[in-house]
What we know:
Elements: E1 2-6, H1 11-15, E2 22-31, H2 34-46, E3 58-60, H3 88-93, E4 98-101, H4 107-116, E5 119-122, H5 128-132, E6 135-142, E7 151-165, H6 172-175
Parallel strand pairs: 1-2, 2-3, 3-4, 4-5
Antiparallel strand pairs: 2-7, 5-7, 6-7
Amino acid sequence: xxxxxxxxxxxxxxxxxxxxxxxxxxxxxxxxxxxxxxxxxxxxxxxxxxxxxxxxxxxxxxxxxxxxxxxxxxxxxxxxxxxxxxxxxxxxxxxxxxxxxxxxxxxxxxxxxxxxxxxxxxxxxxxxxxxxxxxxxxxxxxxxxxxxxxxxxxxxxxxxxxxxxxxxxxxxxxxxx
Length: 177
């Protein structure tokens, strides 16, 4: 059974998600990759204000390809999540509720997820063109100089994902379904 989720995520919805659940996500989410995460982390370390409010947000680890006419984005497949692991606990402690990417997370990220009641979704690697069909709108919010690695806000409809790690730390990546 596929669960339909509407963003923003609530604590109640997160608590009902279990590792291995298939989901279709609709609503708005942020995007960001390595370079954007590094900048956000550096601002947090300095005690400065972030250029976007991450509280209650979902962030998709993606650097979308340029859009063709009539499309919000080009191919938009997930980036390997481990590249954000150094920065993720600080963002989760600051209110980020979920991440979407591919691959395993380190133990510090999983502990921060459990501490903050967060969830990690896996998107299907190699399905960038298919995933981009669920992205209906895209706008740059911060770090435009980073190009495809800027922070965007995506409006999505039925974005396909799997709960890879739930808020209790259960992981299909470590345990299987």
